[in-house]
C-alpha cells in the first residue's frame, strides 16, 4: 500500500471519530463538523475531495481561526498543529461552549506541558466532560502522489534552501528548521509503519537531519511503553525487508532545479505554478467579458494525467488530440442511436426506455456519465496544454531546454549562449539567468574574465545578476572537485514536426515549436540513489553515513550489503518535479529488467526554476 493511501486511511479513520472504518460501510455516517488550521487544510486537500468529505459525514468544514457560530449536539473534529496560537483558540471555544462534543486530533504530538495547559483551560470552562478524545495523529506531511511527498506548503519558505543557507542564520533558528524536518520525517515513518536504514553524506544539513532522525527513531524503539513501531517488530526483523532512507542536501545538484523542462507535470509546475495538485488558469476574456480563472484538479483518479504527466509535452498534445477523436466517435454513436429511435431529447429517453428496453440503448445511457466525465477531462487538459503552449511559444522554452541539454552534454559553444542572451525576443530575464547559471555550473573551465564578460552582457539584457555572486562562491566552496562528471546531459534530437497534429488542424497549433526527443539519462540524485540501493562500492559512497536505528550500538559500518528494493529519497532544501520524474523513470527501467525498485521522493519544499532563482538572488544580495 502506498504512503498516500496509508495517509488517506489515517484521515478517514480520524473523520470516523477514530473508529476503524466499517468493512460493510452500509451504516449511516455520524454527522460532524471539521475544524482545521492551515496546515491541516494543506494535508487534507490533495487527498480527500469535498464530495468524499460529505460521504464521510462532514457537513461543515471551517478554519479554526475564522468566526464560527456555536453548533450544539454535533461532534466537532479538530485537526491542527498543537502550537500556542491554536491551543489558545481551542481554549476560547471551550469557554464559549461552541460545541458539545470535542475530538481533538493533533497533526504532530502535543507536549506534556501543553496538554496540561489545555486540561486547565477545560476545567476553568467547565467543559471536561465535553472532550471525548485527544489523539496524536503523526501525519505531519503532505502526500502529492503515491510516491511523492513534501513537508510544508503554507510558510514553506521556513524550510527552503534560502532559509538553511542564509549567512546570518542563528543556531537556534537552524535547530528549529532541523527539528521541524525531523518531526515530519518521523511522522512519515510512523504512518508507513517501518523503520528505515539511513544514509546521508557527511558535513552538511542533510547529516544533521539524518543524525537527529536516527536518535528520535532509536529513542522510540527502545521505549517499551510508547513504541510506535510494534507492527514493524512483529513483521519480522529481516534486514532486507526494510526501506533505505537517503537524505541529501540540495547542494548535490544545483543545476537541475533551474533547468527548463519538457515533461507535462514539470512544465505545469514551472510555467503555471502547479500547487498541491491544483493549477489555476486565467481564461482569456471573450467579447468584452472579464477574464475568468479556472481551477483544475490534477490527481491520480484522472487516468490521462496518471499516464501522461511524465511524458514530453509534444506527446501529450498528440494524446489529447487522440482522446478528442475517440470522444467524438462515441458521441456520434450516441447521437446515431437516439436518431434511429426517434428520440430528440433526454426526457423522451426515459419514456422510451420503459417501452423499448433494448440492450443497445441501455448501454448507451450507461456510458453517458463516463462520456461526460471524459469530455470534462479532455476540456481541462486542452485548457492546461494550451496555456503551457502559449508560454512555450512566447518564451521559446523549447530552445532553452535544448540548449541546456547541450550544455550538460558539453556540446554548446559560448557563441550560442551569447546569441540567446542578447536576443531580446527570446525568453524572460529569469530564463536567461537560469541558462547562464547552468552553463557556469557545468563548465569548470570558465575564467574570471569570461565570467565578468557574461555578467556585463546579462546586466545589459536587464537581468538581476545577484544570484551569480552566490553561485560563484558556492562553486568555490563546493567539494565537488570535478562537477563536470556530474552531468552527462543527454542531448536531444528533433524528430519530424507533429505531422499528425498539424495535418488534422488540431486545437494545438504546434508549428514553430521543436518536437524534441530526449535520450534517457540519470541526474546526479538518481546516480547516488543507484549506487546506494545497489550497494555498489565507490569511494564517494564510502563517505556516506550508515545509520541503523534498530542497532543498539551506533556504528557506521553496514551490517548487510544486499541491494535494497525500497528507497525513500529526501532532499533537504527543496526538490522539484524534474528530479522526481527522473527517479520514476529509473525505477521503471530497473523493473523492466527484472530488478524491482520502489522509490518515494520527498523534499522539504517544492520549488520551480523561478522560485529557486529568487532564493539564490536573495542569498547573493546578502553577500
Provide an overview of this structure.
With 623 residues, this protein is α/β, with parallel strands linked by helices. It has helices spanning 3-15, 38-44, 50-55, 84-96, 112-124, 161-165, 171-192, 205-221, 230-234, 264-272, 303-308, 313-340, 346-355, 359-395, 397-408, 414-422, 429-442, 448-460, 466-477, 499-503, 524-534, 539-542, 577-592, 609-622, and strands spanning 32-36, 58-63, 71-80, 99-106, 131-136, 142-145, 148-150, 197-200, 244-249, 278-283, 292-297, 492-494, 516-518, 545-547, 566-572, 598-603. Helix 12 packs antiparallel against helix 14 (359-395), helix 15 packs parallel to helix 17 and helix 19 (466-477) packs across helix 24 (609-622). The protein starts with a helix and ends with a helix.
What's the architecture of the domain at 144-252 and 523-622, going by CATH? 3-Layer(aba) Sandwich
Percent range for helical residues? 40-55%
CA distance, first residue to last residue: 47 Å
Q: Using the coordinates above, name the CATH class of the domain at 144-252 and 523-622.
A: Alpha Beta
Number of beta-strand segments:
16
CATH topology (level 3) name of the domain at 144-252 and 523-622: Rossmann fold
Count every helix, treating DSSP H or I runs of 4 or more residues as helices: 24
Main pleated sheet: 7 strands, mixed
Strand content: 5-15%
User: What is the CATH superfamily label of the domain at 144-252 and 523-622?
Assistant: Sec1/Munc18 (SM) protein, domain 2
Coarse structural class: alpha/beta
The side-by-side strand order for the widest beta sheet comes to: 6-7-16-15-9-8-14
Low-confidence stretches: 233-240, 480-484
